[in-house]
Structures are given as structure tokens and as C-alpha cells.
Amino acid sequence: MGGFGSGRYAASSRDTIEDLPFFGIKDWVAKGLIRPGNAFDLIWADEDGHPEASIDIRIEKVSSVHPALVGLLPAGSSVPDHLQAVLEYSAGRAPDDVRPITDAIALAQSPRGFAGQSWRFCCPGCARRVADLYPGGDFFRCRKCCGLLYRSQRETRQARGLKKSVRIRQQLGGTGEYGEPVPERPKGMHWRTYQRLLEQLAEAERP
Ligand SMILES: [Zn+2]
């Protein structure tokens, strides 16, 4: 099982996907990796060459007809098989929150494609055929799906932060309103406690 997300992309402060590892199918075609039964892995290394993240991949043949129905087909009729890439990796923030993920991505071949450019990933999020997949949350999806995912994650984080901000401001004797100046240290509260709450407040109100 490969490890993915040793802090590489799980950091919630990321707002863009531009600098995240992605993978493209053209590279697989160029290396001749798309063969039924073939297994390989993708490894991202850090600056020192240490593996930072990896995904185990195997190419599987799947029938487009349910096995129970094959007997009902007229004799001699051929049923086209499809290929899928099964990805296995762990997602989440290591080491306290790691989840093993298995995700199948269907591969599509356009009949009139040029050699080396005919394969595409079918994005499980939107069913579009795409050449590259990006990490979005726990899964790999097309750029568009990842963009939507990141926006909703960021909004969730902001909503959580706002709630926390209100709680801390009220704890300091304020009304909890955002525009209000940060309340003075309440009588009887330790400086250290006040300092810690101010730090938490700044973190919670980070855009
Ligand atoms: Zn998509």
C-alpha cells in the first residue's frame, strides 16, 4: 500500500491546486503502462529524493456486461471490455488520520485518437474525459472537480473559524461580533491564558 498525504496535500491551508502533484495519462501511454494486469506505482519524492507520497496502481479489465447476464447474449456476440485503473493509497494527515483508499478510475479510448493520445481518464466526479487527475480531498479528480471541492472545503473551514472566533470573543467578555475591537484581558484571567486565546482568535479569523 502506498502512502499518500504525509502532509503533502492534506494541509487544509492550501487554496490552490497548482502546486499539487497530479498525474497524466499521456505519461502512462508513453511508458506502455496501460496493459490489462499491469501493476506499477507513482512516487513523488522530496528535494532530497526521499519518497514523499506514492500511489499503487493496477490496470484491470472489466466487462461492460454483468457476469450473470453474459449467458443471455446471442452466441458469438462479442462484448467489449473496458479498462480501469485501480488506485490504492492512504489519504489524510499522517499519522493520526490516515485512511486507506481504493478508487477505480475508468479509462476511455477515443476510436480516432492519434497514437499515444487516445487514452483518457473518466473523471468519477463529472464523467468527463480528461488527461490529468489532481488530488482533491481524499480522491483524484479532474481539475474542475478539484476546484469545486477546494472551494467548499475552504468555506467549511471559514465557517468553523467564525464560530470559534465568536466563542473566544465572548470568553473574553465581548459581544462576539466580528467588527468589535478585541476585548481587553478580563480581570482575573492569566496573561498566558489571554495570550493563548489571542493566538487562537487570530488563527480562527484567518481568511
Ligand atoms: Zn471531474
Task: List unreliable stretches of 5+ residues.
Answer: 1-19
Radius of gyration: 24 Å
| SSE-based structural type | alpha+beta
Mean pLDDT: 79
- Number of discrete helical segments: 3
Strand portion, in percent? Answer: 25-35%
The percent of residues in helical segments reads 10-25%
Task: Determine the N-to-C terminus distance.
Answer: 36 Å
> What is the number of domains?
2
Secondary structure: number of strands: 9
Strand order of the largest sheet: 2-3-4-5-6-7
Small ligands present: zinc ion
- Characterize the overall form: elongated
Question: What is the H-and-E element order?
Answer: EHEEEEEEEEHH
Please sum up the structure shown.
By secondary structure, the protein is of the alpha+beta class. The protein has helices at 25-30, 143-171, 191-204; strands spanning 23-24, 39-45, 51-63, 81-91, 99-109, 119-122, 129-130, 132-136, 139-141.
